[in-house]
Amino acid sequence: MAESVHLNRRGVLFVLSSPSGAGKTTISRKMLAADPDIALSISATTRPMRPGETDGVDYHFVDVDRFKTMAADGEFLEWAHVFGHRYGTPRDRVEDLLAAGKDVLFDIDWQGAQQLYQEAGPDVVRVFILPPTMDELERRLRARGTDSDEVIAARMARAANEISHWDGYDYVLINDDVDGCFDEVRAILRAERLKRRRQIGLIGFARDLIRSVPEADTKL
Ligand SMILES: Nc1nc2c(ncn2[C@@H]2O[C@H](COP(=O)(O)OP(=O)(O)O)[C@@H](O)[C@H]2O)c(=O)[nH]1
Ligand SMILES: Nc1ncnc2c1ncn2[C@@H]1O[C@H](COP(=O)(O)OP(=O)(O)O)[C@@H](O)[C@H]1O
Predict the structure, then answer these.
(1) Strands 38-40 and 13-17
(2) Which ligand is nearest to the CA of 115?
(3) Which segments constitute the Guanylate kinase-like domain (predicted)?
(4) Domain count, the chain
(5) I need a labelling partner for 205 at 20 to 30 A (CA). Which of 16, 79, 99, 195 fits?
(6) At a CB cut-off of 8 Å and minimum separation 6, what does 55 contact?
(7) Is residue 211 part of a domain?
(8) DSSP letter for each residue of 53-103
(9) By C-alpha distance, which of 64, 74, 81, 75 is closest to 42?
(10) Is the distance from the beta carbon of residue 111 to the nearest atom of ligand 1 less than 6 Å?
(11) CB atoms within 10 A of CB 112
């Protein structure tokens, strides 16, 4: 039997953004559970921990002074103010995951997506998730049961602003049916992994194929 061919490839930096409540946490969890080759970037944040969250798993919960020191020391790939708190992507974990051959999933807002794209350009794939309607978005925020009326109103007020950045993304999906949306996200990841420019060693592989034909007419 022929030897199987394995070419290394550049890792994908896969960004999922959406207005709060549109479903990006749900989709992220499904992706991480379904695919061992992608791992989550764990952000640092100054916002308080919510019930059910674990420090170091959902976020690294830090105070403002610590966050400022991390930012000043260049520890973040990107950071931004969101809902009156600071959120940032620690550089180390992302670099370690990429070095280990993993793709990295980012649950960050449009400001983070923009900064990451400036840092890492074509390695970044930006996916934006829209709710089917604003009424459904509000219904999901209420159904989640994690926020007071006041916080929900603030999230709805911010949602229009977040949505207005939809055209800064490579893909825009509508999360009507969660399984359908998840399938689309997986299809995007699969296709992006197969892109020619991510296949390190493809030039050499094709060259060796051509050279292995003694009579090859490479001028054709
Ligand atoms: N720029 C940036 N945004 C982040 C980061 N981590 C989380 N966010 C965004 O901050 C927003 C608020 O997140 P969170 O407080 O967990 O509330 P959520 O709306 O329930 O997801 C979401 O839009 C996240 O995508 C980060 O490291 N950088
Ligand atoms: N397609 C969908 N249909 C109905 N409910 C959904 C759908 N996607 C997510 N939800 C629910 O909506 C709520 C908000 O989703 P979540 O993933 O927490 O959003 P986000 O991370 O974008 O704030 C959760 O209770 C989740 O179970």
Answers:
(1) unpaired
(2) 1
(3) 11-190
(4) 1
(5) 99
(6) 49, 61
(7) no
(8) --BTTTBEE--HHHHHHHHHTT-EEEEEEETTEEEEEEHHHHHHHHHTT-E
(9) 75
(10) yes
(11) 24
Residue count of the chain, please give it.
Answer: 220
Is 49 a domain residue?
A: yes
Per the listing, tokens 């479903």 go with 23
Cα of 131 from ligand 1 centre, angstroms: 17
Q: What angle do CA 118, 41, 27 make, to 5 degrees?
A: 100
Q: Tell me: the pLDDT tens digits for 47-61?
A: 999 888 999 999 999
**What is the domain-level CATH number for residue 117?**
3.40.50.300
pTM for the model: 0.93
Q: Is 175 in the pocket of ligand 2 (CB under 6 A)?
A: yes
In a domain, 148, yes or no: yes
Q: In whole angstroms, what is the distance from residue 42 CA to residue 57 CA?
A: 7
Å from CA of 23 to ligand 2 middle: 4
- The whole domain housing 146 covers 13-195
Residue 80 identity (one-letter amino acid): A
